[in-house]
Amino acid sequence: xxxxxxxxxxxxxxxxxxxxxxxxxxxxxxxxxxxxxxxxxxxxxxxxxxxxxxxxxxxxxxxxxxxxxxxxxxxxxxxxxxxxxxxxxxxxxxxxxxxxxxxxxxxxxxxxxxxxxxxxxxxxxxxxxxxxxxxxxxxxxxxxxxxxxxxxxxxxxxxxxxxxxxxxxxxxxxxxxxxxxxxxxxxxxxxxxxxxxxxxxxxxxxxxxxxxxxxxxxxxxxxxxxxxxxxxxxxxxxxxxxxxxxxxxxxxxxx
Length: 255
What we know:
With 255 residues, the protein is an alpha+beta fold. 22% of the residues lie in helices and 25% in strands.
């Protein structure tokens, strides 16, 4: 039987989601816990890769198990005792045998947080950036992303992408009562380092290095050398993955 598992994690201690031979990964840590708990080898397939240090406030993976799990809530409860404190399992749900955490995902959402003040309690969760930023200019530039499909200007080199085509459906900055900026971007797919590269370039718009029209030209150029350095990993969160409703029949509410 196939199961979808919902989880969340802090990425600081890991080389990212994907298993690596010589570095700790979220995938490997989760597999080890499930293998111990279920007493047979378990391999999990994730909704996508998150890079070193990137967080997930919502993540989905699937795995196959040779027999029905009678009490999924007990597996969740026990798994959280076996997992380190920076990984938390939320739910375990049986799905169709062909349901795929990666290939059936219709939309993904990332959020990036910038804090304008030094805060020791959130230094691993935000980019603490002290230069004043023009939010209106940044939003004018961010809106231009919806006009494009080719995001080669923000694609990590040597990523072996079959295509750099993505369909961005939302891209917007907001600010909360504490002055923390949040960039929310939704698309059907993302390229490696794409969001961090976009954020770094939009920050350069906000501080006056580029105009929104300059940003449009950077995207249109399909030239990575024209975009800015990527924003630091710790401010980035995978925050949502959306699937066809029939896959998640009976799924409990998200956090």
